[in-house]
Design brief:
Elements: H1 8-13, H2 18-27, H3 34-42, E1 63-64, E2 70-71, H4 74-84, E3 91-95, H5 101-110, E4 114-119, H6 122-131, E5 138-142, E6 155-160, H7 169-173, E7 175-186, E8 191-198, E9 203-211
Parallel strand pairs: 3-4, 3-6, 4-5, 6-7
Antiparallel strand pairs: 1-2, 7-8, 8-9
Helix pairs in contact: 3-5
Amino acid sequence: MILRVFKYNELVKNYMSNDELVERLIRNGALKTKKIIEAFRKVKRENFVPKKYKNLAYVDQPLPTYEGQTISQPTIVAIMTEALQPQKGDKVLEIGTGSGYQAAILAEIVKPGKVYTIERIKKLVEFAKKNLKDYKNVVVIHGDGSQGLKEEAPFDCIIVTAAAPKVPDVLKEQLKIGGRMIIPVGDRCSQNLILLKKKVRGFEEVNMGPVVFVPLIGKYGFK
C-alpha cells in the first residue's frame, strides 16, 4: 500500500465526504471509467478504517490500520483499479487484503464474479472479514499471498498491494491469457508500479511510474 508523509492537522483541514472524494478523483484524472466510478460511490471508505480515523476517512491520504500497515490512498486505489480494468464476471486475486477497501471496490465491479483476497496478518484478516461481511462474492484467506492461489487459478486479474523485489513467476503462471496484473516492483524504499498483460507468448509490460508501498513478505517476496 502506498505511503506518504503527512501532518495530522493537514488531514483534518482537508476533510471531505465520500461524494466529494469521488469528484476529486474524477477531476484529477484518477477515475475515468463509469463502472469503476459507480463502485467508488457505493463503497464508503469510512467502513474500512479503524474507528479512531473515521473522521479522516475521505481525505486523499493513506491511513494507519494495524501492525504497521495502511489503507491505501484513494488516488492509488483508483489508478490501480483503472489500470486493471476488471470486468463483470471476472475472477480476481488480490494479494494484501489490508482493511478490505480495495476488495470491496473490485467486488462491486465484477459481481457476480468473485474476488479472492489473501492477507498474511491475522488481525487484518479478522478486520477485513468484518468489513466485508456483506460482500458474498469476496473470499478472505489468511496466508502467504506471494504464492498466489493455485487451486483457484487461472485469474482474469491479479492485483498486488505490496511491493515485491520482482514479479513472482508463480503469479504470472496463475494469470489467464489476456489477463492483467498490477504490482509494485523494486526495493523496500522505492518501486515502480508495473502493469502486465499476459499474451499467448510472454507479457506486455507498462511502467506506470514511481510509488512507495509496504513490502510483500513471503516465499516469493521479501524475507
